[in-house]
Amino acid sequence: MGSTSAEPTGTTGHPAGVGRRDLIRRSAALGLISVPTMSFLSACASGGGGGGEDKAEAGKKTAENPLGVNGSAQLEFVLFDGGFGKEYAEDAVRIYEKDFPDATVEFSATQKIQSTLQPRFNQGTPPDLIDNSGAEQMDMGVLVGKNQLADLTPLLDAPSYDDPARKVRDTLRPGIVEMGRFDGEKVWILYYAYTVYGVWYSQKALDSLDAEYPKTWDEMLAVCAKAKKKGMAGWTYAGKYPYYIPFSLYPMIAKVGGTEVLDAIDNLEPNAWKHPAVKACFEAYYELYRKGYVLKGTPGLDHIQSQTAWAKGDALFLPNGSWVENESAKVIPADFQVTVSAPTGLDASDKLPFGTIWASGGEPFIVPAKARNGTGGMEQLRIMLSEASSRNFTSKVKSLTAYDGGTDGIELTPGLKAGVAALGLAGENVVNPRIQDWYVKLQKEQIGVGGLGEMMAGRLTPAEAVKKIQGYADDAAKDTSIKHYKHQ
After folding, report:
1. Are 21 and 409 in contact (CB under 8 A)?
2. SS3 for the chain, per residue?
3. What's the farthest any 2 CA atoms get from each other in the chain?
């Protein structure tokens, strides 16, 4: 997967210090950007800060080297090997090597970010640049709380790679800088991609049912019934990683009950999960299971298997992020017409209009506080935020980057076009739940696997799932070993 994250992360669920509506307005003007951010296990427990004793000596700052990179120091770059692949990063590494011919770059890609890198954080020998994404994403909230990340403000205030008259921060899409903050003005994370999350489907398949994308839940059930009669399941999802379900469920909750419901969930407020909008949306999704509209065997499928079944036409709808078009490129038929839409709502009583969607920065890059060559890691990011590197990423992986541009001369793929259209329809109604960034274990292992996964497999009723998830959230709120964050 891309960044399921995860973090993924959009605009209304902003970090401290940013007005929600201001950020929504700016992000609505974005374009599209991709994955996310997701996280599984807690990051290292040891404290950070200070830096290691074996830091590379600083280089001389010049117009060509504004960060003062040591041109002969080794750079270690670890990338998450997911839906975007690794070619775009390898291309950017070659530019670094050209700019610093005396430097050696040790580049590697893995899906085991947490298990590979946590021991190195604990030992004080982390890499210089990390794409902290995937199912084993390290918990960003823990990393920030333990002072294990470097502040990226020097990168953001440096001259951009293309135009020395513009700072890097001035070349980024709205909301990207704010997403990297947790509390205060320091920026700990640079989300390189921009993800549109939602309900993905084949327009050709939907047309074959003589149906339009459903705007109400009664319409959704009717479309699923049509699909079932033709031997196609209504839905499938990453059953082994059920934290994909929120990609469409969370914005549906916001649509039904308003963005304040998601804010309360992010803030770990008491009884936030017991809000009537949450209950109604859980019951709606459970009805997909109860009526047999979920592809048989889905709880046992991983993200690749569920995407493959979807691409083969075994299921119509798939909750996912905009990396899915690239990740499934080898199995998606040429005439599939990849499309994404905002989540279906309940009915006319919903608080927000149809089109309300989750979109945000994804693919979170970090520079560890104890990195030996953290300046080199920031310089590698500065290169990646150039117009050429951004265009290269978009053309190769069918997603936009944090760089506000880089699409000239590129023919947008069906999925990219659909994502841009979905954002246009959303207007100000773009949401960005931060729980997947702030509390990774809670979001993935507990809400995802322990709650939603069990409910969609029929092992919990909606009421039982709400109670269980609220218990998880309450435990997280009381846990003094983790840092807590709130919308301001």
Report:
1. no
2. CCCCCECCCCCCCCCCCCCHHHHHHHHHCCCCCCCCECCCCCCCCCCCCCCCCCCCCCCCCCCCCCCCCCCCCCEEEEEECCCCCCHHHHHHHHHHHHHCCCCCEEEEEECCHHHHHHHHHHHCCCCCEEECCCCCCCCHHHHHHCCCECCCHHHHHCECCCCCCCEHHHHECCCHHHHCCCCCCCCCCEEEEEEEEEEEEEHHHHHHCCCCCCCCHHHHHHHHHHHHHCCCEEECCCCCCHHHCHHHHHHHHHHHHCHHHHHHHHCCCCCHHHCHHHHHHHHHHHHHHHCCCECCCHHHCCHHHHHHHHHCCCEEEEEEECCHHHHCCCCCCCCCCEEEECCCCCCCCCCCCCCCEEEEEEEEEECECCCCCHHHHHHHHHHHCCHHHHHHHHHHHCCCECECCCCCCCCCCHHHHHHHHHHHHHCCCEECCCHHHHCHHHHHHHHHHHHHHHHHCCCCCHHHHHHHHHHHHHHHHHCCCCCCCCCC
3. 69
Residue-wise pLDDT for 324-376, tens only, equals 998 999 999 999 999 999 999 999 999 999 999 998 888 999 999 999 999 99
Say whether pTM exceeds 0.85: no
pLDDT of 259-291, one tens digit each? 999 999 999 999 999 999 999 999 999 999 999
Instruction: Give the residue-averaged pLDDT of 481-486.
Output: 90
SS3 readout for 295-330: CCCHHHCCHHHHHHHHHCCCEEEEEEECCHHHHCCC
Residue type, 349: S
Rounded Cα–Cα distance for residues 398 and 449 (Å) = 29
Tokens of 239: 């059953």
Amino acid 293 reads Y
